[in-house]
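COURSE: Structural Biology Practicum
ASSIGNMENT: Worksheet 4, Part C
STUDENT ID: 0417
INSTRUCTIONS: Below are two proteins. For each, the amino acid sequence is given first, followed by its structure token string. Answer the questions at the end about the second protein only.

PROTEIN I
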Amino acid sequence: MGLGTANDLRVLIALENGQAAEGARDVFKKMGAPVVKVAATKGDVLEAMHQTVFNLVLVEDTFSDLGGLDFCRFIRMVSSPTSVAPLILAMKMPDRARVQEARDAGINRIIIMPFTTDSILKNVQDILDNPTPFIRVSGYSGPCRRKQNILKKGLERRQQQTGVLSVEAQKKLFKGI
């Protein structure tokens, strides 16, 4: 069961690089996304977020004023359906530490800049087709970081599953229901 289709997308693109932003906008428009907003500054982003509830955000790791990771942490903290939207981080020079920091900031996917049309399409399609539960607990807000069901010895810390937003609940938020 997927989150939805490209026709359900309401995308916020927060990239300083104007050429990359326009290229990404064109990709989302060709996919069929009815709402695609491009923002180059913190002010543009905040204005766009006041006007529209987005269900997918593409942000650059060096985004102006805030920095991409701090902006993603901000999105995860806001009281809005956008806070559970999938986040794609466009990184210029990824390394192990930055990727782990992005994961801990609640990023769903990372693409490398300069990105290709294919990299955007594959990542967005994977997000739509294979959603993961959303976790909101003290110290972390973002997609479930567990990628495999591994049997561990000892106590399972998630037995009560508090702070988990199911995929079905995410689907309703994604579609604006």
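PROTEIN II
(use this one for the questions)
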Amino acid sequence: MLNCGKTSTEWPISGGNQFSGTIPGELGNLTKLVKLHLASNRFTGSLPITLARLVNLERLWISDNKFSGTIPAYIGKWSRLRKLSLHASGLKGPFPDAVACLENLIDL
């Protein structure tokens, strides 16, 4: 349950809900977010540039969706990132070079 009176570090969506549509840019305002699990839904469109502000993110799961576009370069700036799941996400292209510098990344 989301409690807007407290600071939450985990997004209250879990995978497999068949949510659809685009990811709202306002999600980037949750700058204390540590985990974001959006896998196994029907999300479309590109990842909003505002997600670049999620610098505390440690885990991102966006696999099994219908995104379009390329893997955003800003992922390479998430220095705390430990787990990144992008398979079957719909995103195309090579990983940004900066991803190789993510020293905490242990699961790709």
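ANSWER KEY EXCERPT:
Q1: The beta strands are 20-22, 35-37, 42-45, 59-61, 66-67, 83-85.
Q2: The chain has a mean pLDDT of 88.
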